[in-house]
Every structure is written in structure tokens, then in C-alpha cells.
């Protein structure tokens, strides 16, 4: 019959932006449609059927976006699963999903984890891998104060003190207002008698805490440390002046530091004058009595030294400190 003479033309491809509203037919997932229509009656083979593949560019774009999102979320889930298997992992699935926006946060969390892993390795006796992890971690997480101090201590033990100091200096922009870190750092500097480094650390701490009213107590503490550093560095006039400028007239601790600076600078007479005047203006400080005895001894005023020590002993006969100090001062004559 006539149907036997039907033939299929080679399939053609047509690209459109829309879909069913523009080209009616059976569409598959809004992406493509195979359209069949008879050939024009005036053609050479009017019985044949023309078949064409119609592809929707809009559908192709939508499906590409969907597949890209599926691939992105799948990759985020895989990355999180890998990270989750590491000890001390801090990176969350949300971080991985929002990676373009949280790249810096993820780097910091990974660094924090490396620091913790390094500390664990060192505690377990695996020093070399622990040092490598600490070094890598501190690059990404420079706020890791404990890791920085431990690594600096190891460098110092290995005889690489300049490297240890450089490591501690690099941490100052992030940790200069951390009193625990600063106390350990200053102790490290004192052990090496590196008072240049000591003073640099104090200046950084004062600069960082200048606009922080909540760090007023820390600033008072670091000022006392700077005065000590200036005294030990031989800058006694600067130390005495700083103590004077920051409240030595009324504060017993600052008064003691100013006296020590004067004595270190070879000015026992000035120290005596200051202590006597201070004790008259304020409630006598027990810490200034031994300094007065020392100043009198260094000034050669031994009779006055004996009187000062006797007065100190009379204040509290049950306290053995003045009696011991009397013995020490006499032995140094």
C-alpha cells in the first residue's frame, strides 16, 4: 500500500531558544524534541517523512547549571569528608559549600588544626614531624601562641636562637596583647639577655593596646616590663623617667622600679631622696625598705643604713626578712 513507500529522510538538527511554545511536540525534559512532518506535496518524494531534532538552548543552559550545582555540592561533600578524617578538624560542611566566600576562614582553620596536630606529635616524641606541622600551621594560623612558643623553644634548644627570635617577632602583630604570650616571650628574651628584643616587644604591645580601654590593666603591666627592660639594657635615665611619667609618685611598684633604675645608673643619692620623700607622702611600702638600705650602703652612709634596717626590723619583729637583709648588706660592705 502507500505506507510501504514511506521513507525517512536524514535527520536534521535545529537550535531554538524556547521549547514547546515555539515548536509543539513531545519534548524530553525540556531539552530536546524529535519532530516528524510529511514532505511537501510538490517535492520529488511526497510520501517521505522529514524528521528533525530540535534542541532548546534555554533547556541546555538550565540543565548545565543544574549539573554544575550537583557537581559543586558533591565535590564540597567529598572535600569535607576527607577533612573530617583528620584529627582536630575545624572545617565544617558549610565552610566547604561556601568555599569561595570562606577561603581565608578555611585556611585559618586548617592552620589551627595543623598547629594542634604538631603539638600532639611533639608530646608523643615525634619532634621532626611535629615541627613541620607547627611551621605549616603557623603560616595559616599565626595566632597559635602555644605552638609558636613551643617551636621557638625547640629552635633555641637546637642552637638556632636567631630563628627562634624571628619566629617570636613574626607573632607580635597577632599576639602582642596576649599577656600569657608576652610573659613567656619576655622570659625567653631575658634568658638570652636580649633586651633589644624585649623592648621591641614591649613597644609593639603598647602600640596595639593604645586604643583599647579594655586593656588598661595589660598596658600598666607592660609598662612595668618596659621599665625593667630599659634598666637591664643600661638605659637607666629613660627607665626612671618612664616610671616617673606613669605614676611613680603614688604607685609603689613604679616607685620600686624607678629606685632600681636609679641604683643601676649609679645614683644612690637620688634614690635615697626619692624613697624618703615617697614614704612620707604615701603609705610606707615594705618593698622600698631594702632598697633604701641598699642605696644608703652604696652611698657610703653606713650609720644611716643601720638606722634604716633597725627601723625596718621594729615594724614587724616576727618578719625575718629585715634581719636577713641586714646580714646581706653587712656582708657586702
Q: Which structural class best describes the helix and strand composition?
A: alpha+beta
Unreliable residue runs: 1-6
Ends distance: 139 Å
Q: Percentage of helical residues? A: 55-70%
The fraction of residues in strands falls at 5-15%
Number of helix segments?
15
Keywords, separated by commas or semicolons:
alpha+beta; 333 residues; 15 helices; disordered N terminus; 4 strands; rod-shaped
Topology:
Blueprint: E1 12-16, E2 27-28, E3 32-38, E4 49-56, H1 57-84, H2 93-97, H3 103-123, H4 127-140, H5 145-157, H6 161-175, H7 179-191, H8 195-209, H9 216-232, H10 236-245, H11 252-264, H12 268-281, H13 288-298, H14 302-315, H15 321-331
Describe this protein's structure.
There is one protein chain. This protein is rod-shaped. The protein has a four-stranded mixed beta sheet with strand order 1-4-3-2. Residues 1-6 have low confidence and may be disordered. It has helices spanning 57-84, 93-97, 103-123, 127-140, 145-157, 161-175, 179-191, 195-209, 216-232, 236-245, 252-264, 268-281, 288-298, 302-315, 321-331, and strands at 12-16, 27-28, 32-38, 49-56. By secondary structure, the chain is of the alpha+beta class. It is built from 15 helices and four strands. α5 packs antiparallel against α6, α11 packs antiparallel against α12 and α11 (252-264) packs parallel to α13. The longest helix is centred in the first third of the chain and has 28 residues, at 57-84. The termini are far apart.
Amino acid at each position: 500500500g502507500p505506507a510501504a513507500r514511506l521513507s525517512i529522510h536524514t535527520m536534521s538538527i535545529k537550535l531554538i531558544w524556547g521549547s514547546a511554545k515555539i515548536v509543539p511536540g513531545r519534548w524530553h525534559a525540556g531539552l530536546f524534541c524529535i519532530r516528524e512532518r510529511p514532505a511537501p506535496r510538490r517535492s520529488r518524494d511526497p510520501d517521505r517523512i522529514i524528521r528533525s531534532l530540535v534542541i532548546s538552548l534555554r533547556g541546555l543552559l538550565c540543565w548545565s547549571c543544574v549539573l554544575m550545582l550537583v557537581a559543586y555540592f558533591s565535590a564540597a561533600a567529598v572535600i569535607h569528608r576527607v577533612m573530617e578524617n583528620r584529627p582536630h578538624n575545624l572545617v565544617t560542611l558549610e565552610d566547604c559549600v561556601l568555599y569561595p566566600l570562606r577561603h581565608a576562614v578555611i585556611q585559618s582553620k586548617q592552620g589551627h588544626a595543623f598547629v594542634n596536630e604538631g603539638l600532639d606529635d611533639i608530646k608523643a616524641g615525634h619532634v621532626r614531624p611535629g615541627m613541620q606541622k607547627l611551621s605549616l600551621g603557623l603560616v595559616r594560623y599565626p595566632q597559635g601562641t602555644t605552638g609558636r612558643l613551643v617551636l621557638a623553644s625547640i629552635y633555641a634548644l637546637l642552637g638556632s636562637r636567631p630563628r627562634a627570635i624571628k619566629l617570636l617577632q613574626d607573632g607580635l602583630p597577632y599576639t602582642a596583647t596576649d599577656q600569657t604570650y608576652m610573659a613567656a616571650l619576655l622570659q625567653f628574651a631575658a634568658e638570652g639577655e636580649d633586651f633589644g628584643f624585649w623592648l621591641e616587644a614591649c613597644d609593639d604591645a603598647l602600640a596595639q593596646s593604645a586604643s583599647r580601654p579594655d586593656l588598661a590593666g595589660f598596658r600598666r603591666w607592660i609598662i612595668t616590663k618596659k621599665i625593667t627592660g630599659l634598666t637591664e639594657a643600661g638605659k637607666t635615665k629613660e627607665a626612671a623617667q618612664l616610671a616617673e611619667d606613669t605614676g611613680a609618685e603614688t604607685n609603689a611598684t613604679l616607685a620600686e622600679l624607678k629606685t632600681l633604675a636609679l641604683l643601676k645608673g649609679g645614683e644612690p643619692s637620688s634614690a635615697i631622696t626619692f624613697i624618703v620623700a615617697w614614704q612620707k607622702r604615701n603609705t610606707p611600702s615594705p618593698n622600698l625598705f631594702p632598697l633604701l638600705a641598699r642605696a644608703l650602703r652604696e652611698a657610703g652612709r653606713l650609720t644611716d643604713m643601720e638606722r634604716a634596717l633597725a627601723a625596718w626590723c621594729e615594724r614587724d619583729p616576727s618578719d625575718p626578712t629585715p634581719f636577713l637583709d641586714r646580714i646581706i648588706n653587712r656582708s657586702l660592705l
